[in-house]
Protein: Chorismate synthase
Organism: Megasphaera stantonii
Amino acid sequence: MNNTFGRSAALTIFGESHGVSIGAVLDGLPAGEAIDWDAVRTEIARRAPGRNAMSTARSEADAFEVQSGFFNGYTTGTPLCAVIRNGDHRSKDYDQLRHIMRPGHADYSGKIRYGGYNDFRGGGHFSGRLTAPLVFAGAVASQILKRRGVAVGAHILQIGSVRDASFHPLGEDEALFESLKQETLPVLDKTKQSEMEGEIMAAKGDLDSVGGVIECMITGLPAGLGNPFFDSVESALSHMMFSVPAVKGIEFGDGFALASMRGSGANDAFYYDGAAVRTKTNRNGGINGGITNGMPVLFRVAVKPTPSISRLQETIDTDTQENCTLEIKGRHDPCIVQRAVPVVEAAASWAILDVWLSTEKRM
Amino acid sequence: MNNTFGRSAALTIFGESHGVSIGAVLDGLPAGEAIDWDAVRTEIARRAPGRNAMSTARSEADAFEVQSGFFNGYTTGTPLCAVIRNGDHRSKDYDQLRHIMRPGHADYSGKIRYGGYNDFRGGGHFSGRLTAPLVFAGAVASQILKRRGVAVGAHILQIGSVRDASFHPLGEDEALFESLKQETLPVLDKTKQSEMEGEIMAAKGDLDSVGGVIECMITGLPAGLGNPFFDSVESALSHMMFSVPAVKGIEFGDGFALASMRGSGANDAFYYDGAAVRTKTNRNGGINGGITNGMPVLFRVAVKPTPSISRLQETIDTDTQENCTLEIKGRHDPCIVQRAVPVVEAAASWAILDVWLSTEKRM
Amino acid sequence: MNNTFGRSAALTIFGESHGVSIGAVLDGLPAGEAIDWDAVRTEIARRAPGRNAMSTARSEADAFEVQSGFFNGYTTGTPLCAVIRNGDHRSKDYDQLRHIMRPGHADYSGKIRYGGYNDFRGGGHFSGRLTAPLVFAGAVASQILKRRGVAVGAHILQIGSVRDASFHPLGEDEALFESLKQETLPVLDKTKQSEMEGEIMAAKGDLDSVGGVIECMITGLPAGLGNPFFDSVESALSHMMFSVPAVKGIEFGDGFALASMRGSGANDAFYYDGAAVRTKTNRNGGINGGITNGMPVLFRVAVKPTPSISRLQETIDTDTQENCTLEIKGRHDPCIVQRAVPVVEAAASWAILDVWLSTEKRM
Amino acid sequence: MNNTFGRSAALTIFGESHGVSIGAVLDGLPAGEAIDWDAVRTEIARRAPGRNAMSTARSEADAFEVQSGFFNGYTTGTPLCAVIRNGDHRSKDYDQLRHIMRPGHADYSGKIRYGGYNDFRGGGHFSGRLTAPLVFAGAVASQILKRRGVAVGAHILQIGSVRDASFHPLGEDEALFESLKQETLPVLDKTKQSEMEGEIMAAKGDLDSVGGVIECMITGLPAGLGNPFFDSVESALSHMMFSVPAVKGIEFGDGFALASMRGSGANDAFYYDGAAVRTKTNRNGGINGGITNGMPVLFRVAVKPTPSISRLQETIDTDTQENCTLEIKGRHDPCIVQRAVPVVEAAASWAILDVWLSTEKRM
């Protein structure tokens, strides 16, 4: 079940960039959940390209149509399918993708995987466009989570060499998360916005692209979600995150910085805050032994620079079986980090919904 | 199926540190595979504690007994179960674990998860001891992979502030992997061994512990393994790695360093090396779009300092529901990074075996 | 993953009878399979109602639209989604379904299952209409199987008290299967057609309905598919068949008749037919120990009379919480057995495709 | 995951008849469940052979040892593994099984499935002995279910040509279930015991065997468990039952008899019994649309005559690739139906526990 994620909240994604439609089937949603579709549309719009000079000028019509699983204003408990029609594409633009392998893309690995039968137009099933149904699913999940007091927020921690401040590991207010969602370049230190924009525009000017880091926090989770083997909360979140195109690293809490710490500095001391158990620090990112401890879950993902660049690149032609050069035509995102922020939030929301539903079994 | 990993090669782990036994069921192994049990024993011995001053002086009898699935020198294709008996433990040593929550451990999160019914002695099911059956499974998997030309190697990239050289991303010789397996502190730059040992002994002297980073490489994989959604090779490996206690981060290829790169620097140019397709660099860690591209798979995991330290720590007593202090008695590993190396290799071997068997379906 | 069937060939079904659309996502199909869509349409038409006096006069537009996973005439290997739009329904006809529970239907059990939020119009997700995407999936699977020499055929063994002859357990010709597909009432003994039609029309005349038995055979399967625990071929087929509405029993080979046999009569003697291994009888339905033995797989399913009848019935009103009577308005199938034949064939095709892909793992 | 059953309560079985041990891993059990191990032993003893002249005189030591998952008198919530050691076997008795294929057994299909590497001694992984860990798991599950008011009972409905009375479909008292468990030949009409014994002894006298039917009832289940697609209660139970060796058919409620009924006779009328919803008949076996309706779940399984008979049989020798004859030496069960009764009860208990845990997700 390659294209299905989740044991209890099972998300199936289908579609190709230039096919008839892309979409998702959301199975295992609790019945009786009201969904604010406008809020879902807002999330999808955050991901959409073409909003400003920093992203591609292609216009994508990401209007979704719910096919099933929603009745009289509530989820039915049966599968909710949503379809997003693809617009008309001039597929000839992509003809060379059949045999000229774009470096950094899945053209070659995908061609081998599917014996050359996969739809190569616009990256096909590998296209970043497939994150639209993911955002749809996450936006639905986040409304269900919100009703249980869970909030998910994210910001750009880094673009190129510019680094934002970090979330306070002991927690941030939901209002901050909401305000971040309004920003094109959501950062904590607003002085970094223009610097980041500078990095992006400089890369664009060089016909190049630039990567970054996204930091994500989930607040309001109860302690006791997840499992030691093999379905830790980190396992669930990382499994999901590495389905987001361009993500190449993930760390929880202090992550790689823990490598140079001492145990006395890395351990998060517990204390009673009234009847509530809390930790004084949160270097473990709210997770001990794969299970939430009630503190905010905190993680960061590394996003590589988008591989689609206009510069001349060396590569191979699988038709002639010879080396060749490639100039990728058309307009491309010089940076996808800002568009990946709602994707990371959505992906985290779905993964956490599944962890919750899979853990909280009671007879 | 919390305690089962894998769609095709399904690994189930059971046991608690101070229970009768720990063990594993390996389901979905190809039939007809010869297994060198001495080689498996060697791998398990690499993980075992008590080999020198750098690890705990507890002696663990990690002798496994194969119960099933092996007949006349070959795997049968039916489940292979192995059991590792636990020795006699003076369980009273661990009595305070029931109500005094060790910081950085799963004592609290596990207590909530299992309603206080989980076996708390020695960490129970959360104990690092549970990695012994994981090493068993991985050692079996690695022999099966080796027969197909796949080699898995790892070294300590970092302990505390000491950093080793890195694997050459375009590939290392299997002989290097083998020689690394002989080392207590497997590093590429041998001058770092004494420095790392110094870090560890210094932490020990301070009644403290220290973390590190492990770098792992898998060579010889064919292109075309894995999937875009949701079972990317990165998803499979990270899902597995975050089941290894103390792992808090993972990155593939250049990982987090990609965040500050340009696309022109991050893209790996393809070229024909005779009939073979290779890349000139390997900043994507051998994986494009979640699928192997034929280059070595390269990743690094962050290992936090072991939370068991002898220093006085602040924490809570869930019996009295009051804050308290804790001194963890007994001998503890000042560093588990070196013992985690064979665990990471084993975990990678099993995950890759499953990816391979799950991808290579032919009718 | 309630609405997903299959480990390797994973079928997800969505939709409600009166929602926007119903459909299916077919994940794990081999890449590079040509699909004859006209042949799929033919299968779907076999299931459709309104073909004659024996089935409901409602007209259903079962035109499917493939959304993804098919490119340049071949399956891509990525998920193939098909959507079947629902026509306009006068939903008021179904208003009483919200609170008057139809006996024999899932109105009550479904209401409890989904807390009353499920779409009750026309049975919603429980509607027999959901078998249309199942037929779609099976028709695709059967073309893939046919290319490997596998044929699936079925006939009506019984309707009411009229019983057809049985398939010869040692195998039937594929041509017979094809000719059966042309029939409205597919039977081996053509003299039974009018008798069966008589049973159906008599039930209709009585404002009642009638059940039956369908016999299905799968020829051309290699020996060695399936597993002893827990994924036997019988397990896979029965799991699937009990998803087909109205199926209440299944038996393999001689099935329940084996209960009164002696072992000497029930055992199928092996013999060499040249180099081929065959059995002299096939009382085990081509399956030993859960695994195919190379002989035809043979099974029968019991189909209960359709619960929608026009007669006055006793039941409950969940609004008033009182007993009441019910007259189901509209036109209903007096017998769905003939319409279930292509559904059983399709369901068997998908289940067998999954068994094959799940078994035939090779490295 | 061939050898694992269940989404939430995941049962993994391992072992071969003549290997070191057989056993089971029970994952996903609720934490905090007291288990009466003597009651589990009683269930396992019911399955054991050698209790009287009607079953094989082989003595089997079915003493289980719990390895994990149980602490201080309660389930821990982590995997519970139990191992049953195999006794010493004179494996030479079974030498011919390597190349002389026993009719009706899995010798041939298993040999093909596993490329000849499977353990053939005593049937290996296909042995009926593998039902001992299944009974273990079911006995644990039944105690958990009992605490929620669920009772599981079974009796022999038929052996050869002798047929017992049926359970009352509207429900039986738990006391009846308990008294049936005390019987060697559990039947409702005690006059049938000697007739059934006569059938068995006659078969034995003829060096032959005889089959039968087992009827099983589950009372006390709440309405609303299960799913329409694809995890109906019938799907779950049948999937499990066809893992029990020798089972070749299953029917729910009136099953195959529904084929000759009218809808007016097959529909179960709902009524209010005070506040409780009940049905006046139970021809659907307590399941509508794949979901429990609150009435007893009722099903019957067909058990074929044990294929091990002492008579001379025709078969093949895979070494010489010639036809041959076979006389199976040793003592064999002339009837396994009575020994299968506790297996069916146990298998039903586990399957229902999983359905319950998989359905009852709440956030």
